Amino acid sequence: MKETANIPPRSVAMLVFLTLALTQLAALAAEPKQILGEPRANETAIVFETMDGEKVDAFEGKIQVPENRGNPNSRLIPVHYVRFPATTAEPGPPIIYLAGGPGGSGILTAQYPRFRFPLFMALREHGDVIALDQRGTGASSTLPKCVSGISLPWAEPFTDAEVTHLHRVAAQECVGFWQGKGIDVFGYNTVESAKDIDDLRAHLGAQRVTLWGISYGSHLALASLKVMGNHIHKMVIASAEGLDQTVKMPHSTDAYFDRLQIAIDTQQDAAALYPDVSALIRRVHKRLELNPIRLQIPAEQGATTEFLFQRFHMQVLASSMIADPHRGVTQLLALYQEIDQAGSSDEVKEAVAALVVRAGFIDRQISFDLMPFAMDVASGITSKRLQQVKLEAQTSLLGLALNFPMPQLADLFPELDLGDEFRVFPRSSVPTLLLTGTLDGRTYIEEQQEATRGLTNLTHVMVANAGHNLFMVSPDVTETIHKFLRDDKIDKDDIVIALPKFAM
Question: Of 332, 381, 387, 385, whose CA–CA distance to 355 is shortest?
Fold first, then answer.
């Protein structure tokens, strides 16, 4: 999706929604059936087991791909996958799942029984379903984590500029660390991953494949249209992130809070508690700017560590918790309210300290995982968008913390950047289903529309009141995907789910 202060909120959010998985929609799960067919090259028959003990026959496989296709002397690296065979005698093209993050594991996603495992099983009626671990992730990672020698101040105030500087120095150190290990850092980008997918397609003996992805997985799917468009049968994407949308627009986040306010106002208790969410957020940020909260965090052997909780920490937390209204948002609103009303009371300190530990802010030394770090830097941002992001950040609720440490690192390694040609939105007639949550706090309605404007065969379904992780929020979502893959008519362009109770 790693839960540390030193990774982008998008990665923290990924871990949050994995650890707080949705209630299982058991009715969606297909009964496991016997394996159809024989293992392909480099495949082994396995019994795939979820974390709660559900079992299904599957194949485990891998392919070898160049770490950097631009280097004729590149070493080979493994790309692992699990293939769940189709449950129909006449399967369609394989369906390849592309995890979000970047850095998410497709295989791990399939192991969560109450997250997406039922959907993996349900889609087998259309073809083989592939849980892919993209290069540098999960079983496909042989990459060491870099823990830099650069430390963050725990107990002293700091400015955004100081945090940015420290992360830039740490990033340079880490690139040197990986290169010293013989790793070609410049091979870890979305284009190389798209070429991996095409190699996997050929390995599976398929003329075409269907791509199924969410968040960064949709970013990878959209890039794949440029790399292997003639070999893509269909695409099912959700919470779309465009090729120039690695860095989110700060004012789009402000507009999200406006939509959240409208939802809150439909609930009498919540409306009374949160009459103006945006004003509440600004008050708390100003308060923390002037008077940070000094905490005592439990350490080893009964000791404590002093930690200064500042406005930047609050903004990073908010950035990671707004993805889904049905999970982190209610807790986040309550935290803002508590700080606003009680300041640095013992109760507030206890609540904040728990979140500080969960978010990994106490990890003093700045660290990076190569895959998410390099993928984000490589996808980068156009100069026009960067200028607009910096301008909007000056007055927006979450500022540049929304994407931290992007765009702060975007210009640090020009040779890693894929360039503006990569960031031009794709044009394609590949049939595509786009699912958008109206209360998605990470990828926003207007941005998703922009990301897919070049797709001439697009079916766009809005999921009202859903957030970022929407695949399992309603049986209607699954049925819509089924209809799309069967070429049945999708007779409605919206799905409505119930709002959570915002007042705790």
Answer: 332
Cα separation, 192 vs 136, in Å, equals: 11
Q: Are the CB atoms for 323 and 334 separated by under 8 Å?
A: no
Q: What is the pLDDT of residues 385-434, one digit of tens each?
A: 999 999 999 999 999 998 999 999 999 999 999 999 999 999 999 999 99
Q: Three-class SS of residue 282?
A: helix
The rounded distance, in Å, linking the Cα atoms of 370 and 145 is: 7
3-class secondary structure, 400? helix
Assigned CATH class of 44-142+185-245+420-496: alpha beta
Tell me: cis bond preceding 298? Omega within 30 of 0 counts: no
CA pair distance 303, 18, nearest whole angstrom: 31
How far from 268 is each of 200, 322, 328, 438, CA to CA, in Å?
Answer: 53, 21, 20, 21
**Global model pTM greater than 0.85:** yes
Could you give the CA distance from residue 296 to residue 309 in angstroms, rounded to a whole number?
10
Residue extents of the structural domains in the chain: 44-142+185-245+420-496
Read off the DSSP letter of residue 183.
Answer: -
Q: Which two tokens stand for residue 319?
A: 């950035």
Find tokens 């559900």 and name the residue.
54
Tokens 């960064």 -> residue: 216
Chain mean pLDDT for the chain: 92
Beta partners for residue 244, in sequence order: none
Given a contact cutoff of 8 angstroms between Cβ atoms, the answer to whether 267 and 282 are in contact is no
33-46 burial string, b = 16+ CB within 10 Å, else e?
A: eebeeeeeeebeeb
* DSSP calls for 249-268: PHHHHHHHHHHHHHHHTTSH
Measured distance CA(167)–CA(6) in Å, rounded: 8
Residues 6+ apart with CB under 8 A from 156: 308
Output phi, psi for 82, to 5 deg: -120, 130
Q: List the Cα angle 206/97/446 in 5-degree steps.
A: 120
